[in-house]
């Protein structure tokens, strides 16, 4: 299936977003390394990096990337935009190899190749963005029984996780925190898409911010983002980042695609073969992402230790990375 004009714009913005975000991690890390030689490192509670220009360049690059990602949802379906977030992992891995001298092994290269192949498959078979002429149309979709049931189930599951499972298993089972982030994230993306459409229509046709529905979507984005940031920080503070990143990507992408299919009925006009090709593309990206994370420390001293478990103690202490040993 060929790319429509809107899908092409969404694809361009999504890829640009991944490049900026992937590069931002490297620039910020390089800035942190430089700042660490001048004062107390960030990991030890220091804030010297705030005076490091390179760190700020990285922050600006990340902001630009997030804005591009936000805009991408206004043009293309979430099924196309969300999985392409994995491309930022490739950018980070390749730049880390050349800039930070963190060696990219053959399995890492294979992981990158799988991500690219999967992305191409999704791009070629992604559904066309349906024309929307008012944010009220999005509101009509959102108030259909199917999406109301989905939203209701998400809120129930999140409430159960927060009040029942977080106190008991939050510090031992990673999927509790990640599950909350992913479920709320699916609602965030749907609302972000609605706000993005409102902005696009406001600049090109009619002011959409005169409708209360637009402000409801803005409120949902704000509330859901607060939940996501809060519980993602808890997850990062408790568990190994190398495990959280791929699991969060998988769960977030699955729930986002599910929400998009229910809300916008993305697969309604597609054949079974096209849907299968999209799913195969996503699974291929998933395989590449896991391969990249699983082999990123191959050959390092840290890799000689046993693999980090999916469920680990909050007192788990990671061994120093190869980068840290170079700094010392």
From TrEMBL:
Q: How does it sit in the membrane?
A: Multi-pass membrane protein
- Please verify whether the record's keywords include Aminoacyl-tRNA synthetase: no
Bias class Basic and acidic residues marks the residues at: 300-309
Q: Read off the InterPro entries from this record.
A: EmrE-like (IPR037185), Mg_trans_NIPA (IPR008521)
Bias kind Polar residues: ranges? 316-328
Record's keyword terms, sorted? Cell membrane, Endosome, Ion transport, Magnesium, Membrane, Transmembrane, Transmembrane helix, Transport
Q: Name one Pfam family in it.
A: Mg_trans_NIPA
Concerning SUPFAM superfamilies, the annotation shows: Multidrug resistance efflux transporter EmrE
Domain of life of the source: Eukaryota
**Which stretches are transmembrane?**
7-27, 54-72, 79-100, 106-126, 147-165, 177-199, 211-231, 243-263
Subcellular location(s): the record lists: Cell membrane; Early endosome
Q: Which GO terms describe its cellular component?
A: early endosome; plasma membrane
Q: Which GO terms describe its molecular function?
A: magnesium ion transmembrane transporter activity
The record's region (Disordered) falls at 300-328
This molecule's function is given as: Acts as a Mg(2+) transporter. Can also transport other divalent cations such as Fe(2+), Sr(2+), Ba(2+), Mn(2+) and Co(2+) but to a much less extent than Mg(2+).
Membership in a protein family: Belongs to the NIPA (TC 2.A.7) family.
User: Could you describe the subunit structure of this protein?
Assistant: Homodimer.
What is the protein name for this chain?
A: Probable magnesium transporter
Organism name = Prunus avium
């Amino acid at each position: 299936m060929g790319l429509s004009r809107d899908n092409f714009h969404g694809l361009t913005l999504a890829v640009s977003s991944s490049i900026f975000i992937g590069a931002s991690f490297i620039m910020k890390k390089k800035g942190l390394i430089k700042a660490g030689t001048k004062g107390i490192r960030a990991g030890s509670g220091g804030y010297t990096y705030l005076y490091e220009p390179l760190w700020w360049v990285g922050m600006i690059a990340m902001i630009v990337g997030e804005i591009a990602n936000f805009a991408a949802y206004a043009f293309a379906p979430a099924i196309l935009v969300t999985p392409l977030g994995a491309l930022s992992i490739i950018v980070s891995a390749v730049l880390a190899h050349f800039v930070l001298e963190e060696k990219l092994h053959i399995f890492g290269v294979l992981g990158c190749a799988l991500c690219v192949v999967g992305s191409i498959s999704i791009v070629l078979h992604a559904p066309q963005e349906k024309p929307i002429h008012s944010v009220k149309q999005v509101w009509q979709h959102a108030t259909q029984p199917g999406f109301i049931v989905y939203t209701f189930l998400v809120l129930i599951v999140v409430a159960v996780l927060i009040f029942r499972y977080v106190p008991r298993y939050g510090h031992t089972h990673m999927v509790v925190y990640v599950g909350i982030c992913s479920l709320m994230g699916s609602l965030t993306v749907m609302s972000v898409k609605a706000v993005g459409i409102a902005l696009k229509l406001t600049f090109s046709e009619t002011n959409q911010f005169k409708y209360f529905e637009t402000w409801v979507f803005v409120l949902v984005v704000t509330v859901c983002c607060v939940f996501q940031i809060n519980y993602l920080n808890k997850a990062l503070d408790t568990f190994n980042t190398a495990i959280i990143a791929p699991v969060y990507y998988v769960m977030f992408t699955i729930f986002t695609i599910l929400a998009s299919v229910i809300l916008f009925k993305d697969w309604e006009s597609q054949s079974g073969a096209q849907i299968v090709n999209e799913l195969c593309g996503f699974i291929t990206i998933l395989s590449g992402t896991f391969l990249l994370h699983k082999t990123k420390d191959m050959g390092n001293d840290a890799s000689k230790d046993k693999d980090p478990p999916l469920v680990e103690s909050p007192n788990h202490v990671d061994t120093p990375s190869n980068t840290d040993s170079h700094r010392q």
